[in-house]
Automatic annotation (TrEMBL):
InterPro entries: DNA-bd_dom_put_sf, MerR-type_HTH_dom, MerR_fam. Keywords: Coiled coil, DNA-binding. Residues 78-105 form a coiled coil. The keyword Coiled coil applies. PANTHER family: HTH-TYPE TRANSCRIPTIONAL REGULATOR YFMP (PTHR30204:SF58), REDOX-CYCLING DRUG-SENSING TRANSCRIPTIONAL ACTIVATOR SOXR (PTHR30204). The keyword Coiled coil applies. Residues 16-81 form the HTH merR-type domain. It holds the Pfam family MerR_1. This is MerR family transcriptional regulator. Gene3D superfamilies: 1.10.1660.10.
Amino acid sequence: MGEQHEIDDETPIFAIAVAAELSGMHPQTLRQYDRLGLVVPARTQGGSRRYSLRHVAQLREVARMSADGIGLPAIARILELEDRVRELHGRVRDLEERVRVELEKRPGARVFAAGSTGAVVTLRHGTRVRRATELVVWRPRHPLPAAPEAEEDDDDTP
């Protein structure tokens, strides 16, 4: 059997005519939104547009906002911010998973937070952090260089 590909909200599968029908718009409107950078579909090797389920949802949202009297520049900014929020949610999920894995590797490991005065506060596993307290998790991207060891004097040096 061939390799199976998982289809999710991001998979570009719809041609422009199908995406236009699913979103209740004319294909020319979708082309215009693509040129304006509002909803930019993926492209096939031949240059044809391919829309995902997320693109169709965005097109419906653009239509709703436009009907509510929101201008296209404002809609573009809203979509840009929604994409950024989606990206940040993904990064938070990834970081939470990394922290969970690290904590599982280290039974009895402690989590630290900085208090409002800057003092380090130890938290027991499972302790909720107050809103005013920021939890900081840090791991260097590259191993820190080893501290230089003290050089020993050679007896045979003059």
